[in-house]
Amino acid sequence: MKRLERKKQNARVGLNGNGSVHREADCGRKQKLSEIHQALISDPVDIETLRRAAASKGGLLTDELRRKVWPKLLNINVYDLPYKPGRDVRENHKDYNQVLLDVRRSMKRFPKGMPAAERAVLQDQLIDIILEVLKRNPQLHYYQGYHDVAVTFLLVVGERMALAMLDKLSNYHLRDFMDPTMDSTKHILNYLMPILEQVDTELHDFMIRAEVGTIFALSWLITWYGHVLSEFRHTLRLYDFFLASHPLMPIYLAATIVLHREKDVKQTECDMAMVHHLLSRIPQDLPYELLISLSQDLFDQYPPSLLAKRAALQSRKSLSISTFQAFQLSTFHQRPDSVLQRLTKAPGATTSRHGLEAALPQDQVQLWGKGNRMVKMAVWGLSATLGVAVFAVAQTAMDWGPEVLLQLF
Amino acid sequence: MAEGGSSVELSRSLTSSTLPPPRTRIFKIIVIGDSGVGKTCLTYRFCAGKFPEKTEATIGVDFRERLVEIDGEKIKIQLWDTAGQERFRKSMVQHYYRNVHAVVFVYDITNATSFRSLPAWIEECKQHALGTEVPRILVGNKCDLQDSIQVGTDVAQQYADAHSMPLFETSAKNPNSQGDGGCGGGNSDHVEAIFMTVAHKLKSQKPLVLGQLSGGSGGTINLSKGMHDEGDETGSWGCSSC
């Protein structure tokens, strides 16, 4: 705990520092950008550097970098992405109604001010990619909140890469949540109290007395906080962190958040309802960078294996935890994109080139690249049956792509 | 089950300035039903006094509360809004069935499946030792959508009678947006009345045996009794999660 306190103080000093802090931060950013680029072109890809970059201050900095780094963190070849799901994915799917219901009412996840028509295109894509992953993996089961994870990827990397990422993640980090029942999820939640116990016994005992349980952190865990954060940039920052971390990291962050609010918790009535209510509402102005680094410290200090021993948590097998090492090993032998592009066989133009390039002719890609840097094309959908290309623009900033984008077709 | 009494004691010993004065009784009500029937809307409408603009899927359990006054007594009504998806209720929601004073079953009158699920929900309650002795009410939601009714009032009433529950048909939506007179037309305090009915019912029971008396009161509740002019004190917090 002392170590954590010190860190808190240091962070405060950093915030109150003099004018040079800004320049240093700028310099740090430049250095980070160059490190990430270097790591991406190394052969094999320098995955350790990418992981460190994703977890350290500022995360992956831009969506452009996320589109390059996220697939590497999950060992995905961007030149060999799955095809976009066909219409038939919706037919006779047992989860179709639930997915439809949840996606239809997930308006809050899309950028404010996005025209309804464009949101509708994205929502359709969201339904399709979710159902496609479930169809490819009959052992996986949909849960409410899965759509909050899916939408985050869709908005940043587009339909086909989101599909690939979601497929991979569902088999590893999210695997426990996708069992037929939520018993494994409950098991993961059970790590929360032992972490608290290690750091702040008084707080732990208070919460035990209140019988608050851990359901207040359920949506944090299974949506990687996507369901509870209103600022998309915060969600992205956490996704950078989690994609580069152990599957239990969201629980360590949950513990960090509870510890961060320790005073509020102890001051509240020692009653299940009161404590649940207080904790389930995440303050929107949390110091995310600080909390991320504290979570990492907690993880290093009290790794899952240690907690499992102390808290008799081994009784149940977690697939996410048991497969993590193999998953991590698999990410160490990736070739850089330039090599992948050469190596990956290209049956057709749209599969050999990925993302933006796949959807647009080359000159238009450049036009986009040179345009307003704030306008980030994240998503496009091609409706081949109509012979019309429709694409929607999503971005994490508040501004909107000009209408002129639609005239490209 | 006399949790009302003991939690008051607890709150008295740990009271802080933001809490209501001592002796405030707490009525804990759990709201259950299929996904998408409008549980979040109903509870939000009662606690915040307005229809939420957007509601999302509830993941796990949400909590809302409101302080009301009934016959001069201040009472805290706690609503536990639960996730509708089956997997959540199987292993996550159980914790919240404990010490519940009343149960509100919700179905969507435009969705026959949600009505057909009611026996399963009632069974769920039984498994958590919440039988007919705990006051239960049945709410048919979304009756502003008169054009797409799939569950008729007569069928619902029969079912409610068979299970000794009062039936309400309502819309958690702003009544101003409703079309014809319909079941909830024009009654802006309809949602209010539902929860206040439960609160009255609970209050009329002796405090020490709260939640243990027979709740067998068939028939549809008459909403024009003027029972809802007490609840002016909208809780200042608790309804922002929608």
UniProtKB/TrEMBL annotation, chain A:
Organism the protein comes from: Echeneis naucrates
Gene it is expressed from: zgc:63863
Major site of localization recorded for this protein: membrane
GO biological process: endoplasmic reticulum to Golgi vesicle-mediated transport; Golgi organization; vesicle organization
Signal peptide (from-to): none
Membrane-related topology note: Multi-pass membrane protein
Protein name (record): TBC1 domain family member 20
Record GO terms (molecular function): GTPase activator activity
Pfam families hit by this protein: RabGAP-TBC
Keyword set, alphabetical order: GTPase activation, Membrane, Transmembrane, Transmembrane helix
SMART domains: TBC
Superkingdom, taxonomy of origin: Eukaryota
Parts of the chain that traverse the membrane: 206-226, 238-259, 377-398
Region (Disordered): 1-23
Any Gene Ontology CC annotation: endoplasmic reticulum membrane
Subcellular location(s) per record: Membrane
Biased composition (Basic residues): 1-10
Span of domain Rab-GAP TBC: 60-246
TrEMBL record, chain B:
Pfam families: Ras (PF00071)
Xref: InterPro entries: P-loop_NTPase (IPR027417), Rab33A/B (IPR041822), Small_GTP-bd (IPR005225), Small_GTPase (IPR001806)
Alphabetical UniProt keywords: GTP-binding, Hydrolase, Lipoprotein, Membrane, Methylation, Nucleotide-binding, Prenylation
GO cellular component: Golgi apparatus
Cofactor: Mg(2+)
Membrane topology according to the record: Lipid-anchor
Entry EC no(s): 3.6.5.2
Taxonomy, superkingdom: Eukaryota
One BP annotation, GO: Rab protein signal transduction
PROSITE patterns recorded: RAB (PS51419), RAS (PS51421), RHO (PS51420)
Keyword Lipoprotein belongs to the record: yes
GO molecular function: G protein activity; GTP binding
Catalysed conversion reaction: GTP + H2O = GDP + phosphate + H(+)
Compartment list: Endomembrane system
Coiled coil segments of this chain: none
First-listed, main subcellular location of the protein, grouped into a coarse class: membrane
Entry similarity comment: Belongs to the small GTPase superfamily. Rab family.
Protein name: small monomeric GTPase
Record lineage: Eukaryota, Metazoa, Chordata, Craniata, Vertebrata
Gene assigned in the entry: rab33ba
